[in-house]
Amino acid sequence: MIGRYAFSVVIGVVVTISLLFVMHLLIATGKAALTKPRDRAKLEFVRVKRNEALNTEDFTPEKPPKPPETPPETPPQDMDNMDPDAPSINVAPPSVATDLDIGGPGGMNIAEGDYLPIVRVAPVYPARALSRGLEGYVDLSFTVTTAGTVRDPVILFSTSSLFERAATRAVLKFKYKPRVVDGVPVDVPNVKTRISFQIED
């Protein structure tokens, strides 16, 4: 029993002395840490002065020069320098039917106004004839009405039946200035025309 107390006392003394030694060591090192100057890192930076000068140049394009108010005068033609031997172009006059029935006493109604063609519509080339390479024409007769339209087209002759429908449709779109007799427009029957179908090269 006494041995245990003695052993406990010895252990307690040793632990106490160890704690005192550790505390003394911590106090000594802590004091040195407080008094020792610290190495402070210096942060260096350069301040760049802001460029506040703005480029105020005007980038608008220059205006184009104004056109002259009056166009330049064309130089007069020098008729003396014309070549008399230059080739000439001969244009044949249009063919006019001479067997027209003018009617009226003395044939003077033409002064009041005979019928005249105003609009002639080209026919549509039939696809079947075009695929076969066929060419030809259709002769027709019709009546020019008092309104200048075409009525009652009749086929007189055709080189191929493939052209007849297209020729009839084209003739029905013709427009005429009607014949005027004594100030009154009249019908003109038996007007003849030829519709040709040719393949262009």
Essential attributes:
TolA/TonB C-terminal domain, three-stranded antiparallel beta sheet, 201 residues, rod-shaped, 7 strands, 4 helices, alpha+beta
Q: How would you characterize the largest beta sheet?
A: 3 strands, antiparallel
| CATH classification class of one domain | Alpha Beta
Compute the number of strand runs: 7
Helix content: 25-40%
Low-confidence stretches: 86-111
State the distance separating the first and last CA atoms: 143 Å
Q: What is the fold named in CATH at topology level of one domain?
A: TolA/TonB C-terminal domain
Tell me the Rg in angstroms.
59 Å
By CATH, the architecture of one domain is named 2-Layer Sandwich
Number of helices: 4
Give the oligomeric state: single chain
Element pattern in H and E = HHEHEEHEEEE
Structure description:
- By secondary structure, the protein is of the alpha+beta class.
- The protein has a domain at 112-197: TonB (TolA/TonB C-terminal domain, 2-Layer Sandwich).
- The protein is built from four helices and seven strands.
- A three-stranded antiparallel β-sheet has the order 3-2-7. A two-stranded antiparallel ribbon has the order 1-4. A two-stranded antiparallel ribbon has the order 5-6.
